[in-house]
Design brief:
Layout lengths: L12 H14 L5 E2 L11 H12 L12 H15 L8 E3 L2 H12 L5 E6 L3 H9 L3 E6 L10 H5 L6 E7 L11 H14 L2 E5 L24 E6 L12 E4 L2 H12 L7 H12 L3 H22 L4 E2 L8 E2 L2 E2 L5 H12 L1 E2 L1 E2 L11 E4 L4 H16 L2
Parallel strand pairs: 1-12, 3-4, 3-5, 5-6, 6-7
Antiparallel strand pairs: 2-8, 7-8, 9-11, 10-14, 13-14
Helix pairs in contact: 2-9, 3-9, 4-5, 4-8, 10-12, 11-12
């Protein structure tokens, strides 16, 4: 009955866990959730007020498919200023970040083309690559390299069929931040072998050690890079479903074509709110970054007190990916913690083959809940 391509799609592991948590909380269960990748802060008031003004002014109609011109200009200005990406408004497509990833795979990957992904990686990358007909090749990430995607790991996976590489720094689910040397080495490989790069930079404002380097800012890389970013993590706007893709004009044209045949445009009044996010006060961005850094240190200290868990200190984002010293699948471990500790984590198997034997813990939660949740995890694991 269903198209054969649906065999390549599994339900998102992170969304599946979040749906289960919502169901249990609705039934009255006292669940502490470390499962969802979204800031627990509210969207700043000035952004919400801009949206309400837009509605009051009846800004509720279709916009140009690529986004309202003033927002595209603001995004280009931001990316030039913060990330040194040599773009202008004509390179910017306003679109939800996940939609940008999906459209990039459809536009760039033919049946049988190979897509190199980090292993461990956010599951959406693999799902979109396979839906486009691509063959996934995993570049191994090692604990010794703090889960960074190194040029050496990438080089081992390049073949004559390599079409696209996905670069995610800071990374979900490991919180790894690539060094400038890592990024430069991967850029050299892309130019030497002629493949393109999809750079997911959604966490680039949450770097605690090191610096973020956009691969499209390096010489020769803008014309072979699609950079995706958005408002969800930086401005606590996950439910607004807005972000952007920056691409060279030939690729932009194809992405925009797909947008016209799918979502048409991002919701009009949401675009006005996004414009305010970029033009308005930025104090909330700094506050959230400082708080996430403090939570990272708290979780790491508490985890060090649990002998059966092991994890390097992440350098960015708001995740940790600990291994555990028990002969259990990651699905079983997540189920055990949910049932016995009333703590929700995401099984590592949702993030690729190397995720098995681990679980993802999101510290986008209050310090009080972090302390309570980690105590519950410690007690539950001590009973195994």
């Amino acid at each position: 009955m269903f198209a054969k391509r649906m065999e390549n799609v599994l339900e998102s592991g992170t969304v599946k866990t979040a749906n289960l948590v919502s169901k249990l909380k609705g039934e009255g269960a006292d669940i502490i959730s470390f499962s969802m990748g979204e800031p627990d802060f509210h969207t700043p008031e000035n952004i919400k007020e801009a949206c309400m003004r837009s509605l009051a002014n009846n800004f509720t109609y279709y916009t140009p498919s690529a986004g309202i011109p003033e927002l595209r200009r603001a995004i280009a200005d931001r990316c030039r200023r913060l990330n040194n990406i040599p773009c202008d408004a004509s390179n910017v497509l306003v679109t939800p970040t996940k939609q940008a990833i999906f459209m990039t795979m459809l536009a760039m990957v033919d049946e049988g083309d190979e897509v190199i992904l980090p292993d461990i990686a956010w599951g959406t990358f693999e799902a979109c690559a396979r839906l486009a007909g691509g063959k996934v090749r995993y570049a191994h990430l090692s604990v010794e390299n703090a889960f960074r995607m190194t040029p050496e790991a990438v080089a081992e996976k390049i073949t004559k069929r390599t079409k696209l590489l996905v670069l995610n720094s800071p990374s979900n689910p490991c919180g790894a931040v690539l060094t400038k040397g890592d990024v430069k080495g991967i850029a050299d490989l892309a130019q030497d072998h002629g493949f393109f790069v999809l750079a997911d930079e959604i966490y680039n404002q949450l770097v605690f050690e090191g610096e973020h380097v956009s691969i499209s800012s390096l010489e020769g890389m803008f014309d072979r890079t699609i950079t995706v970013d958005g408002f969800s993590k930086t401005y606590a706007m996950t439910g607004w479903r807005a972000g952007w893709a920056i691409a060279p004009k030939p690729i932009f044209k194809e992405l925009n074509k797909l947008q016209t045949q799918s979502i048409t445009c991002v919701t009009s009044f949401v675009q006005q709110a996004c414009l305010e996010a970029l033009h308005g006060p930025q104090g909330s961005v700094a506050m959230m970054k400082q708080e996430f850094k403090a939570r990272r240190e708290l979780v790491y200290a508490l985890m060090k007190d649990i002998p059966s868990l092991d994890c390097p200190m992440p350098s960015g984002a708001f995740y940790m990916m600990p291994s555990y010293a028990f002969d259990m699948s990651s699905e079983d471990m997540a189920a055990y913690l949910l049932e016995e500790a009333h703590v929700a984590v995401t099984p590592g198997s949702a993030f690729g083959p190397a995720g098995e034997g681990r679980f993802r813990l999101s510290y986008a939660a209050s310090r009080e809940n972090i302390e309570k949740g980690m105590a519950r995890i410690k007690d539950a694991l001590a009973r195994l």
